[in-house]
Design brief:
288 residues; alpha+beta; 434 Repressor (Amino-terminal Domain); Beta-Lactamase; 2 domains; five-stranded antiparallel beta sheet; 13 helices; 5 strands; 47% helix
């Protein structure tokens, strides 16, 4: 909901994106003048987008809720947005047209077909995340690889479910698991920001963002950057406490019937040392 004195999610995002582009990046002269803020000024972005400065100012300040698709596309071009950022901008603009009332969503339950698929993965580590990155389920090897220090039954209890975003930023074990921890942080924040844009009325999601912002300076910095980063597939080097160094490909797959639930699998090339490490992990945890 847009409140007095606040530009709202759309305005905050536009401000952050505008700040990351310098006049030199887009061929605008500065004549050596001292600039009070980084990046483009509002009137400069309006000029690049071909809209009036007053209109763009109202849009960024949260006073205009009727931006057309053509205007949003022009602003996207001026800001040199990625495809994901363009979609995020359209989502935020759509949300700004509605009066949003916080609604407590129903408790998420692991989709039965995803649960069956998770069980059938066998030796492939798998985990299912919900809208807010809550762990809705994992198979034995997924638990052993990504969070073996936690209760394996925790995802079955809604009030006790681990949250992957909190684990990445606040749990020392998970932080130490990822060799390139900053890269994992960027992916988590990018995905979480997409979810926040799609569900601005979700108070639990807002509470998660607020909690992480207060407890993790790294999260607060990345969240303020307003970057979005859908992560369908990425390679991560891990330093696992039981099997040592290995690299896995994490792939995110959405179920058609429950698109807010994501199955994340961790794989490695057949016959590789990484697969051997996964096999060793399976053997070491076979009785747990």
């Amino acid at each position: 909901m847009v409140t007095t004195g606040s530009p709202g999610p759309l305005g905050e995002t536009l401000q952050a994106w505008r700040a990351r582009i310098s006049p030199e990046d887009v061929g605008l002269p500065t004549y050596g003048e001292r600039r009070r803020v980084p990046g483009l000024r509002r009137e400069e972005l309006a000029l690049l987008a071909g809209v009036s400065s007053s209109y763009y100012t109202r849009l960024e300040q949260g006073h205009s809720r009727n931006a057309s698709p053509e205007v949003l596309e022009a602003i996207s071009n001026a800001l040199e947005l990625s495809d994901a950022e363009r979609q995020h901008l359209r989502t935020l603009a759509g949300g700004s047209r509605r009066t949003l009332r916080p609604r407590r969503p129903p408790v998420e339950r692991l989709d039965s077909s995803l649960a069956d698929l998770l069980a059938m993965l066998g030796d492939v580590p798998g985990i299912v995340l919900g809208r807010r990155s809550d762990v809705l389920g994992w198979n034995r090897l997924g638990h052993a690889l990504l969070a073996g220090h936690l209760d394996p039954l925790a995802p079955a209890v809604p009030g006790a479910r681990p949250n992957m975003a909190e684990l990445v930023f606040l749990d020392p074990h998970v932080r130490g698991l990822y060799t390139d921890w900053p890269a994992k942080c960027r992916a988590v924040v990018g995905n979480l920001r997409l979810a926040a844009g799609e569900h601005p009325e979700d108070p639990l999601l807002a509470a998660l963002v607020g909690n992480l912002s207060m407890r993790s300076p790294e999260f607060a910095r990345l969240w303020g950057d307003h970057r979005v980063q859908p992560c369908a597939s990425a390679d991560y080097a891990l330093d696992h406490p039981l099997v040592g160094a290995l690299t896995v490909t994490q792939q995110s797959l959405r179920a058609m019937q429950t698109p807010e639930q994501v199955l994340v699998t961790c794989t490695a090339p057949a016959g590789s040392p990484d697969t051997e490490a996964l096999n060793l992990l399976r053997q070491l945890t076979s009785n747990t």
